[in-house]
Amino acid sequence: MRMIVALSVVLSALLPAQPPALPSPSPTTNPGTRKARPDLFESGVAAMVNRGVITVADVREEIRVRIVGLPPAEREREYEGTLLRMILEKVMDQGTQRLQLILNDQQVTSHIENLKVLHGGEEGFREHLSRIGRTYEEFTAELKQEWARDLLVSAYAGERRIGDRLRPEHSIKPTAREIREYYERHMEDEFSNVAAAEIWAMTISLASVKPRTGRGTMEMALAKAKLIVEDLRTGADFAILAKRYDRISDEKKGYEGWREEDAPMNPKILMYAFSDVEIGEVSDPIPFGRGYFIVKVTGRKTARTTPFSEAQSDIRNKLRRSRLVRTTAQVRERLVRNAYIWPAVYKARLIGGLRADQRAP
Which CB contacts under 8 angstroms, 24+ apart, belong to 306-310? Predict the structure, then answer.
């Protein structure tokens, strides 16, 4: 009987009824001695996930750098948010262990070799690890852990089957019928392209050639426009000259973007843009009521309907991506719901957040 009472006292000390508040660091003892005995907050249990334990010291180590200088309320939020993430990760890791998901070491090694190339070789990759505060072994272990979690989601989402122990519940693979229906539903807005041209246009108006006394004339505007056209044809930057001389659209620096034939802009500009002029050619000055246009076309698209044979791969990937976040949340919710998590309030908060992710568009 005495043993049971003693065991109850020990458990009640380790498992407080409420999550502890984030205190200031523990004081040290006399100078020259080792660090003082950790206080209850540092040595206590922050959460239990099935048979796994997350200590408060684990959480403190995660947030140690991020909470420097933060007020107490923000430190509390950082602590709780980090703890929730750690609980979810532990649930996922326990799931990968339970299903004995084994990663292909060759794929991991190949991925790391590609990262080395991106960072300029072995030395550049080591510098990258130093900047993020990871050793090579820590980075590899974290990479394997993340991939294992992704594999767990993929298994439940119908992408893989692990023997006969797992049945897909939330497939993210669109069917052939769904892909075809998407194509037909979005034929007009996504897969039918009208003719369009990428247009640069500059306006040399009478106001832009106005002398100090008197008014600007069409002859003065034409002379200025011809000089600008000559500069453009010998390599001058359209955006720079448009900003300097165009009093109407200098904020856009002459760039009108991709425009269709019925776009709401001056028809003389559109007429030139959709004529047989070569891409990159600068127009002669085009007269209008109070000045001249200078136009340059840097791209052109012909009217075309993308056939289903070309579109279906992109549609499949788009549907899969749109379902991935929702499906991942569904799988994670199932795992959290079936797990034992203490304190129970964290389990409820995780489920609430994951259900919100499932409702996201």
Answer: 306/191, 306/192, 306/193, 308/180, 308/183
